[in-house]
Design brief:
The complex is a heterodimer of chains A (417) and B (341). Chain A has 417 residues and is an alpha/beta fold. Chain A contains 17 helices and twelve strands. In chain A, α2 links the parallel β2 and β3. Classes of the chains: A alpha/beta (417), B mainly alpha (341).
């Protein structure tokens, strides 16, 4: 029920449009005048950043935020116009690609030189030597497990997907849980992401080096699909409709013992609302798993950061840079915000909720690829993999379909001839 | 009406139609035959919190120059229409020449996105439209025979499914038919199968969507038919009763002919609406089992890289589909009206 309320609320917020911070007082954050308009995803960490930017509103500075789960459906359109509606978009390493492809964000080198002295060097996202975004948090999918269930079954937290599978079998056979595994396997973006994780874990490369030619119809691809199917046997039969929200709800209901989940979602899993004390107390996290005897973790690393629109005046760009920088200022770190994310901000102290993401970085997981055509492959994967998961066709046929669907899309977008 | 009067009377409507109907259609037609320029891709070094790596990126300067030279993109004619994501001419041709049986041919066809979507869209349209008309008519006749003090509340409650926004209605039902939801558990109990899941089976998902479609749209048919019943000629009905016509005969020979124009109206609207089935697929997260033309458009535009030409081509195909679907009904109505004058 909570999910419905939340979705309804989110939809209502989206319809109601953006929130406007009303002006009070004089110049703040060192901004004399200008317009700041933020579009971004909606989760606690980003809301904190948005609130920080809104602090800069004054009589002469307007600060608006529009934080919604549908941000990437509106950010390109909202930044294409001249002047752009949104002066900044909060993006991740997958979604910045669309903004770069459409050439709607500006290099930040001069603004960083002028105002960004206190930013960490690793916060600067550079492409071809130009700073295109300022990252403020890291994210990754990693293992989340129920300590009590694993203890009862007499198994250790898995380090590999093979161990996870074996553990799930034991838990089911002992009758502790019928469907002990969870995962955001919803057809579409989520399912495609799980394939990406697994395929990287098996050492696969998505494209022929230096080209836009896809090459996933290989042994690693088949193995990745087969592992996903093996895992799905131990999931709720409705798994193809479960996104991260629904999977979290399953977890909170106490139906799941192990899952590969986003680090940014661990905080809410530790709240008793919609859950029980037993589940909350026994929700533990660990690093990512490997698969097939490989050493590369079967997961990807992500950053979230902000950009500045190209089609706005230099004055607005400077105002936006300063306001967003205020949003990620070290002074906003406190007991509450510390647990919201793995901040890349000076002065951040890792909380217990962050060990999964840190372990992922240490295990040298690969970042989600920032290729201009990766998004097209992601869409093709999300649309075609369900046929394999529902048993309609073989792994090889599905992989061939994915390649064909990608090729058609890449030809349309001009990446392939 | 004089021609001049008619012209001035019709002008605002014509202008609105031009701006809100003709122009967008023209725009998607253009969009569907032009593609983005070939991308100039360069290898670059990219750095971030997780270190540096070599990746590819679009060369902005070279691309901007291409767009300046040809702002519409490159003309591709019917290329998008014929590619695998749409009519898949090459793939269908190959399937035609290599498959041995009809079953195998349709199996291959069902693997292509557009034909798979059409399979569900057409099934949905042709199953739910007649069902909802029959159900709507049955409710209308039943309500019409109720005592006056009951009519109000019954009409209100029968209209509720239509009042609830499709997306919200389907989201609520989505959780109710969940394996642990009220309806889901009930169905498991009836079928005596604790592992039964509506959402995991393709046929059950289709049935669920069709039942939902009927439930949602029947009130529309009901309200139209109920209004029609209020204008029933009482004389004819009474003479039919005097002649000893049974209740069924009165419905068959008096009521149905009287409201037939309304049936055509509901049929037209619902064929059009059902062909564009979309919200239930999203609400029920049913995209793994059922897709529709509108869902493909949504998917084209919802990815991290938007496929505008593909979405435009699908929109044009949807318009063509609706036209084909409506043509028989429209032609019949036109003939009838011609016969009358």
């Amino acid at each position: 029920m909570k999910f419905i309320t939340k979705s309804a609320l989110a939809a209502a917020m989206m319809l109601a449009g953006s929130q406007l911070a009303y002006a009070d007082g004089h110049a703040k954050c060192g901004i004399e005048s200008g317009r700041v308009s933020v579009v971004g995803n909606e989760f606690p960490a980003i809301q904190t950043v948005g609130a920080g930017a809104q602090e800069c509103a004054s009589d002469s500075v307007e600060v608006k935020t529009n934080l919604t789960a549908d941000h990437q459906k509106i950010n390109v359109a909202g930044m294409t116009a001249n002047p752009a509606e949104y002066t900044t978009a909060i993006v991740a390493n997958s979604s910045i690609v669309a903004l770069i492809n459409e050439d709607v964000i500006r290099p930040l080198d001069d603004l960083v030189a002028k105002h960004g002295g206190d930013l960490n060097k690793n916060q600067l996202i550079t492409i071809d030597g130009k700073v295109m975004a300022v990252a403020f948090m890291a994210n990754a999918q990693h293992l989340v497990y129920r300590e009590d269930v694993l203890k009862e079954a007499g198994i250790e937290p898995p380090k590999t997907y093979e161990e996870m599978l074996a553990g799930a079998k034991i838990i089911r056979e002992k009758g502790i849980l019928q469907n002990p595994l969870g995962g955001a396997y919803k057809a579409g973006w989520n399912l495609a992401q799980e394939f990406n994780n697994m395929y990287i874990g098996f050492g696969g490369e998505f494209f022929k080096p230096g080209t836009a030619e896809v090459s996933i119809n290989n042994e690693a691809g088949v193995k990745a699909l087969e592992m996903m199917k093996a895992l799905s046997e131990y999931m709720n039969p409705d798994y193809l409709t479960h996104d991260s929200n629904a999977t979290s709800a399953e977890w909170k209901a106490g139906n799941v013992a192990m899952m590969n989940m986003w680090g940014s979602r661990v905080g809410p899993l530790r709240e008793t609302e919609g859950s029980s004390q037993q589940v909350v107390d026994n929700t533990k996290i660990a690093g990512p798993m490997t698969v097939g005897g490989g050493s590369i973790p079967a997961t990807t690393l992500w950053w979230d950061g902000w950009t500045v629109a190209k089609n706005i005046s230099d004055e607005d760009a400077e105002a936006t840079f300063l306001a967003m920088k205020n949003g990620i200022d070290p002074k906003m770190l406190n007991d509450e915000t510390m647990t919201q994310a793995v901040w890349l901000i000076e002065g951040y102290q890792p909380t217990p909720a962050a060990i999964g993401v840190f372990a992922t970085v240490e295990a040298q997981a690969k970042p989600y690829p920032m290729k201009p055509f990766q998004g097209l492959l992601h869409t093709a994967l999300g649309a075609e993999i369900p046929d394999f998961m529902t048993g309609k066709e073989s792994a090889e046929k599905t992989l061939a379909d994915i390649e064909a669907a990608y090729n058609a899309a890449a030809k349309e977008k001009g990446f392939l001839q | 009406m004089k021609h001049k009067t008619f012209f001035w009377f019709f002008l605002p409507t014509a202008l609105a139609m031009l701006v809100f109907i003709a122009a967008p259609i023209l725009s998607i037609l253009m969009q569907s035959v032009f593609l983005p320029h070939e991308q100039v891709v360069i290898e670059v070094e990219s750095c971030g919190p997780f270190g540096c790596s070599t990746t590819t990126s679009v060369d902005q300067e070279a691309t901007a120059k291409l767009w300046e030279e040809a702002p519409l993109g490159r003309f591709a004619g019917m290329q998008v229409y014929f590619d695998r994501g749409h009519l898949a001419v090459a793939e269908v041709g190959e399937a035609w020449s290599t498959t041995q049986s009809w079953g195998e041919f349709f199996g291959t066809l069902g693997n292509l996105p557009l034909y798979r979507a059409l399979a569900f869209t057409l099934t949905y349209t042709f199953v739910s439209t007649p069902l909802l008309i029959i159900l709507g008519f049955a409710i209308a006749v039943a309500v019409n025979n109720l005592g006056p003090w009951l009519k109000g509340p019954v009409i209100f409650f029968s209209l509720l499914p239509f009042v609830v926004t499709q997306l919200i209605g389907s989201l609520i039902l989505f959780w109710m038919v969940d394996a642990r939801g009220v309806i889901g558990t009930f169905i498991q109990w009836i079928a005596d199968d604790p592992d039964l899941s509506l959402k995991a089976s393709t046929p059950l998902t289709w049935i669920m969507l069709i039942v939902y479609g009927v439930w949602n749209s029947a009130p529309f048919a009901f309200v139209v038919f109920y209004a029609g019943l209020q204008t029933l000629p009482q004389d004819t009905l009474e003479s039919a009763m005097v002649d000893g016509a049974t209740r069924w005969q009165r419905i068959r020979y008096v009521v149905i002919p009287h409201i037939m124009p309304l049936v055509t109206f509901v049929l037209l609207i619902q064929l059009m609406d059902n062909f564009r089935v979309f919200e239930p697929i999203i609400g029920f997260s049913a995209e793994a089992h059922a897709t529709s033309l509108s869902w493909i458009i949504f998917n084209d535009l919802g990815g991290e890289t938007r496929q505008l030409s593909s979405a435009a081509a699908n929109s044009v195909l949807t318009i063509i589909g609706v036209s084909i679907l409506l043509a028989p009904v429209l032609v019949r109505t036109w003939r009838e009206s011609k016969a009358k004058t």
